[in-house]
Amino acid sequence: MTLDVAALIYFNSYLSVYLASFFSLPITKDGTTLNHEQVVQQLEKLTVAYECGTGVRDWYNGLVNIKLKVELSRYEEAIGWLKDLIFSSHFDKDRLGSTYAH
């Protein structure tokens, strides 16, 4: 396996934009496309708190850290949402652009 350091540095420069918009990108969930407002609204109903970032306590900055805090009875639903957020996000140029502008 070859590690392309230049590619990692290139993509790492976009990581902050991706993480800033992670919980507000449109997604496809159960065959239905949800816009960013619907995603945020449903996450607010599901979770007590949610956040993402890099590293752990200023260590391991190459690590992406995603947290969803939910009631125990909604654990399985939260795992489904996490899967959809990671694998079913739509990288909408306008949405990412508005995040980047802030």
What topology does this entry show?
Layout: H1 5-21, E1 27-29, E2 32-34, H2 36-46, E3 49-56, E4 59-69, H3 75-87, H4 93-101
Antiparallel strand pairs: 1-2, 3-4
Helix pairs in contact: 1-4
State the helicity in percent bands.
40-55%
Total individual domains: 1
Please describe the biggest sheet, giving its number of strands, its sense, and whether it closes into a barrel. 2 strands, antiparallel
Mean pLDDT reading: 84
Q: Strand order, main sheet: write it out.
A: 1-2
Task: Give the topology string: H per helix, E per strand.
Answer: HEEHEEHH
Radius of gyration: 15 Å
Percent strand equals: 15-25%
Basic shape:
globular
Structural class: alpha+beta
Number of helices: 4
Concise overview:
With 102 residues, the chain is an alpha+beta fold. The chain has one domain. It has 4 helices and 4 strands, in the order αββαββαα.
Structure description:
This protein has 102 residues and is α+β, with helices and mostly antiparallel strands. It is 49% helix and 25% strand. The strands form two sheets. The chain has a two-stranded antiparallel ribbon with strand order 1-2. β3 and β4 form a beta hairpin. α1 packs across α4. The mean pLDDT is 84.
What keywords describe this structure?
4 helices, two-stranded antiparallel ribbon, 102 residues, 4 strands, alpha+beta
